[in-house]
């Protein structure tokens, strides 16, 4: 795939991965030097701070209802807004506003961040001071000398991570960390959390107009940073009536398959998840 896309990459074997990461857990990896790993919270903050002057950010103002029409009415908790065109960038939460209920469903992906490693722990661990490796599990060593583990994906009908599941995740993240870095005797995690992402039945995203004046682009199945960024821009152009080859391409990739009703949806998702977990058991 990388060859076909003319993308640079390098193969790394177990010993060269160990030199970078300090663990010989991984048998092989591909380094894509033109890719970046980023901190999504820093990205959001940075975007918020550098928006152009004609953009106003309103925080802590959940949209309660969107009424399509001309103009579209958006009801928030304490005020309402009217606009000719509205782009809903709520991702999986869109179903809560009454749109695409049979097209997308929420999943949560979970991660933990360790406390900063002590000097002794860093010396025992070896490797470079910053790296990231992604697969079924993502691991990063950050410049603040912490380890990040991203592992565990669940179906969430209520968009939440339960406390018992969170406790279970902390333990599983500790096991993952110890397996790779047995030299870290007590790798405490300071934070464990889950974020919602938007899934579709056939991995196809949605792009386009939902109702007069209401547009959305979503359903990137856990890899929305690149796809969401480009399709968000294309959605704005589409809403303005622009035509382009890229818009045609993104439309061709859209069309989620209709979801079955509950309880079949929940049962089907849990069965697929069990199958994926079993297939990925060696990597965890
Ligand atoms: C742990 C984790 C790891 C991930 N790793 C990767 C990765 O490695 N690569 C990758 O490409 N993607 C990854 N993703 C997926 C990626 O984060 C998402 O695809 C991306 O954030 C989607 O961006 P978005 O802006 O469309 O939606 P979101 O980031 O979901 O943002 C939707 C926003 O809408 C707001 N909202 C919802 N309802 C309302 C309402 N009624 N009123 C007002 N606001 C509302 C929410 O608060 C939220 O801020 C990961 C996700 C998680 C959780």
What does this structure look like?
The chain is of the alpha+beta class and 284 residues long. It has a domain of 33 residues. The chain is 29% helix and 26% strand. The chain has seven helices and 13 strands. The strands form four sheets. It has a five-stranded antiparallel sheet. The protein has a three-stranded antiparallel sheet with strand order 3-4-5, with no helix packed on it. A hairpin with a 3-residue loop joins strand 4 and strand 5. The longest helix has 18 residues. It is globular, with a radius of gyration of 21 Å. The protein starts with 9 loop residues before the first strand and ends in a 5-residue tail after the last helix. The structure holds flavin-adenine dinucleotide.
Beta strands, count: 13
What's the helix-strand series?
EHEHEEEEEHEEEHEEEHHH
Fraction in helix? 25-40%
SS content category: alpha+beta
